[in-house]
TrEMBL record:
SUPFAM superfamilies given in the database record: C-terminal effector domain of the bipartite response regulators
Pfam families: GerE
Protein name, entry field: LuxR C-terminal-related transcriptional regulator
Keywords: DNA-binding, Transcription, Transcription regulation
Domain HTH luxR-type: 250-315
UniProt source species: Pararhodobacter zhoushanensis
Annotated Gene3D superfamilies: Winged helix-like DNA-binding domain superfamily/Winged helix DNA-binding domain (1.10.10.10)
Transmembrane segments: none
Domain of life, per lineage: Bacteria
């Protein structure tokens, strides 16, 4: 990236980021971003994903790699206690910085860092992350340059990557779909790494629930009691990690009914009387009245008008 071109490059990156997000889940977006940023900033390899940086140990949540061998994450796990960059990241809250660097030719060394750098031919290593969020794992990018004459990333390049991570997290946290659903990206332990405000609020509410009940209520059960269906799309990542994109869909009123009750409820909403419904469906008027009472109970309403409003609201949400 030539000096003085940062603003134009960043504008193009953000525009492309919003465009590709429409057709990509969270893990796929990481893959795209790693390659895109490598081409813009100029680095040979990258490690991008989420990590829990709260001491005593950095815990990798889910990552993607760019131009790195498949065993990279496993090897890093063996030397993680010697990782000088990980230690720097953990101290960022006190220093106020959002990046750290390691130079294989510099004076600050550890056995683990030397082994990592030499094994994969890395000379200049930089890690950039976002402001520390104590409630969830942090998005990070480790950018590597190798070969004789490699130079460290300079401040303007590090700032570019830091701002890029902010926008990536923002896009991943974007509002739900037009059908009223919310999206939440979680790790294998159910911790959210991305999600819109409504989805994160639901997750926080579940976390705040008393855990004294036996068995403890699962997040799926918690959502079901609050009127949500969940569609899960898991994606396997490096070294056995997994991220799952949850689509939280508010249940419609008619979803609570049997097939016959739904049929009757929709006819009521269209303005038909009990006698007209009974005649049209070949039922006794008393049967229709009894089923209407069950429909009111399931929908939490007490009148035809209230039931009609609830069904029309469902239909409007589906039409976006």
């Amino acid at each position: 990236m030539r000096e003085g071109t940062e603003l134009q490059a960043f504008s193009r990156f953000v525009g492309a980021l919003h465009e590709v997000r429409r057709g990509m889940d969270g893990p796929a977006l990481l893959d795209w971003a790693a390659g895109e940023l490598s081409g813009i900033v100029g680095f040979d390899a990258a490690w991008l994903g989420w990590a829990d940086t709260v001491p005593p140990e950095v815990d990798i949540i889910g990552t993607t790699m760019h131009n790195l061998p498949a065993d990279y994450v496993a090897f890093w796990s063996e030397i993680r206690n010697d990782d000088l960059l990980a230690a720097d990241v953990q101290s960022m809250k006190s220093t106020g910085r959002f990046w750290a660097q390691y130079d294989r030719d510099g004076p600050r060394q550890s056995d683990g860092m030397i082994a990592l750098a030499d094994r994969y031919g890395l000379r200049k290593l930089s890690v950039v992350t976002r402001a520390l969020d104590p409630l969830r794992p942090q998005l990070f990018l480790s950018a590597y340059r190798g070969g004789t004459g490699a130079r460290s990333l300079v401040q303007r390049e590090l700032q570019f990557l830091s701002c890029a991570l902010d926008h990536m997290q923002s896009v991943l946290d974007q509002e739900g779909a037009r059908d009223g659903s919310f999206r939440l990206l979680v790790d294998a332990r159910g911790r959210p790494v991305a999600g819109n405000a409504a989805a994160l609020t639901l997750w926080s509410g579940w976390q705040a629930e008393p855990k004294r009940r036996e068995p403890a209520e699962s997040f799926d059960d918690f959502l079901e009691t609050r009127g949500f269906n969940v569609l899960a799309s898991p994606t396997a990542l490096n070294d056995g990690h997994q991220l799952t994109e949850l689509r939280l869909m508010p249940r419609r009123v008619v979803d609570r009914f049997t097939a016959r009750e739904r049929e009757i409820a929709e006819l009521i909403a269209e303005g038909f009387t009990h006698k007209e419904i009974a005649r049209g469906l070949g039922l006794a008027p008393a049967t229709v009245r009894n089923q209407t009472a069950r429909i009111y109970e399931k929908a939490g309403v007490s009148s035809r008008a209230a039931l009609t409003r609830a069904i029309l609201t469902d239909q409007a949400s589906l039409q976006g």
